[in-house]
Each structure stands twice: as C-alpha cells, then as structure tokens.
Design a protein that fits this description.
151 residues; mainly alpha; Arc Repressor Mutant, subunit A; three-stranded antiparallel beta sheet; 8% strand; elongated
Length: 151
C-alpha cells in the first residue's frame, strides 16, 4: 500500500507534538489526527493505511481512532461501493471546541458570583480584581461568540 496523501515530515512532527499537548491525547492518536490534517483533498484515510504508514498494531490504531471519534476530532464515512471506512478531520470541531470554551467561561463566571456571594467579601481590592477578571471573561465570551456566528 502507498500513502494516499503527501506529508511534510517536519510539519507532521510539529503537529503531533502540538495536538498531543492541546488535546491531551496519546502519541498514536495525535499521529493519526496530524496525518489527517494533510488530507487536503478530503479523500479520506483508511484504517489499513494508518496501520501501515504509522507502523502500529491494529488494536492500537483501533483504540486511537475510537478515542478521536469520541472526542469528535474526526469523523468516518463509508463509500457506497466499499466496505472500508474512510476517516477525516471533523470540520465542525473548531466550532465545537470554542463552544466548549465559552461554556467553561460561563461556568466560571457563575462560580465566581456564587463564591463572592458566599464570602460577602468587603475587601474592595479583591472585588475590583474579581470584577476586572469577570469583565475579561465576558469580553472573551462575546468575542468568541461573535466569531462562532461567522463560522
């Protein structure tokens, strides 16, 4: 079997390192995700190609693919005339990721309000710092949501 896509080894290694850290995923899962980034024509990569190109066992590749599918980083499709599954990066993931970021910021805002109400803190310097931090969170939420609307 041959590679169905062309990759740049340096960029691939940088992507493996970056996405492994960003998504907190094992090295093989990061390699699979990074490999898929080079599928510019969206032809899809088969399970067998991952096994061969990445020199990994079928069970390891299967486990990594399952993880990436569960994290919604990748999607799979079956072509009508074939039994093989083809894997692609999930084009919707960027939107999903930033929706999760916004939700975490909203959750933190609620928690800060609850803690502040519980403490009934009278320290003006503390309150000013918390209010500045909350304003930063709200501004970031607004900016991200505005950008998400464009996606």
């Amino acid at each position: 079997m041959h590679k169905s896509i062309e990759i740049d080894e340096r960029i691939f290694q940088d992507a493996v390192k970056f996405y492994g850290f960003l998504f907190n995923i094992p090295p093989l899962a990061s390699k699979i995700y990074s490999y898929l980034l080079f599928d510019c024509e969206k032809v899809g990569i088969t399970f067998d190609e991952f096994v061969e190109v990445l020199s990994a066992s079928k069970s390891s590749v299967s486990t990594s693919i399952s993880l990436l599918l569960n994290m919604q980083l990748i999607v799979d499709h079956n072509k009508m005339d074939e039994r093989k599954r083809y894997f692609f990066t999930n084009d919707e993931y960027k939107k999903i990721r930033f929706e999760q970021v916004v939700q975490k910021m909203k959750d933190e805002l609620r928690l800060l309000d609850d803690l502040n109400n519980f403490k009934k803190n009278k320290d003006n310097d503390y309150n000013k710092r918390i209010e500045a931090y909350k304003a930063l969170l709200n501004k970031n939420i607004e900016n991200i949501q505005e950008s998400l609307n464009k996606l």
